[in-house]
Specification:
About 30% of the residues lie in helices and about 20% in strands. By secondary structure, the chain is of the alpha/beta class. Strand 5, helix 9 and strand 6 form a beta-alpha-beta unit. The protein is globular.
């Protein structure tokens, strides 16, 4: 098996590298023309290891199903545009904003909820004037306590560019937390070097890194080492995972992933129900199925490993926890409480 040493950025490149055959290449070319494709060498190695058919392949190799959309799907499924007062800013919640400085990623997930905005043909990188306008907006809104850099993947930016962003935020006193949403430690772990870490800390603010990973196989030795470099430098890490049919819709697999996060000093944070992005229905399971999986985690693995199952309400109305309640009122100050085995108990006890 030949090691792949460069990123693969088209269906043709996937074929030339041996990740898909000629027939698949012909079949999938229209998908690659519609949505961005990129696979890094680290992810290509995982695809090779699983033989081109498995949870990593499903996340990154195009599928014909992506060309099938239904009438519930939206180009902007979580309503970013409705809450964007200036280019690059999404201000949905009172105390925090998204700063989308770049719309490029090292890999393109086949279920991406911003797939209409990211990639070489997407919204691009903010210009200097747009970035200055975003910083001015943040500075003029003293209620903004946290800035979340997302996009695109902000860690594709050079350490110099990241440092410039952090220096700009350093001068805004009411911003106390800077958070980065990224896949880089998993898909391109060698980027997490001393210069990048120094850039992430340049603001003097408290820095969080939210790692997006969906399957325990993504937490390779190199990925765990990259995360260790971040944590050892004083950067707090949390996780984000999307619940995906055919990838991690199994309590055992999901439990292994959450334990892997905790072992790597990453606090499990959000388990996202898949968004209504175009051409992603083959990844979606029902909310009831998701609730069943989450209930199976509870009690069977440590409380440290429990993510919050959430839904981004379409239209820009924000996130809602949808894990389901284990307690229900039975009247007169009494409640019925379910344990992790599904048995009901009266509270207070009779």
């Amino acid at each position: 098996m030949t090691a792949i040493t460069r990123s693969l950025k088209s269906v043709k490149a996937l074929n030339e590298a041996g990740l898909i055959d000629d027939q698949a290449s012909d079949r999938l070319t229209p998908v690659g023309e519609r949505y961005a494709v990129a696979v890094t060498p680290d992810i290509a190695a995982l695809i090779q290891k699983e033989g081109g058919d498995g949870p990593i392949t499903r996340q990154f190799v195009p599928d014909l199903a992506e060309l099938t959309s239904n009438n519930t799907e939206r180009e902007d499924p979580i309503g970013d545009e409705a809450h964007s007062p200036v280019p690059g800013i999404v201000h949905r919640y009172p105390d925090r904003v998204l700063l989308k400085a770049v719309h490029i990623c090292p890999v393109y997930c086949r279920f991406c909820f911003r797939r209409e905005m990211v990639g070489p043909e997407g919204n691009g990188t903010l210009t200097r004037d747009e970035l200055d306008g975003a910083f001015a907006y943040i500075g003029n809104n003293p209620g903004i306590w946290e800035v979340i850099l997302t996009g695109g993947d902000p860690l594709v930016l050079s350490p110099r560019r990241l440092s410039e962003i952090m220096q700009a935020l350093k001068s805004i006193d009411h911003v106390k937390i800077v958070r980065f949403h990224t896949r880089v430690p998993v898909v391109e772990p060698q980027r997490i070097d001393d210069s990048l870490i120094e850039a992430l800390r340049a603001s003097g603010k408290t820095t969080y890194v939210a790692l997006h990973a969906n399957h325990p196989d993504e937490l390779t030795k190199d990925a765990r080492n990259a995360c260790s470099r971040l944590v050892d430098a004083g950067i707090v890490m949390i996780s984000q995972t999307v619940l995906l049919k055919g990838v991690n819709d199994d309590a055992v697999i999901l439990g292994r992933l959450m334990k892997g996060f905790v072992e790597t000093r990453i606090k499990p944070y959000y388990l996202h129900h898949p968004d209504l992005a175009p051409g992603t229905s083959h990844f979606r399971l029902s909310i009831e199925e998701g609730q069943t999986i989450v209930a199976q985690l509870r009690g069977n693995i440590s409380g440290l490993c429990q993510p919050t199952y959430i839904l981004d309400i379409p239209g820009g109305y924000g996130k809602a926890p949808i894990g389901g309640s284990m307690i229900h009122s039975s009247g007169d100050g009494c409640y019925s409480v379910s344990d992790f085995n599904g048995n009901s108990h009266q509270y207070p006890p009779a």
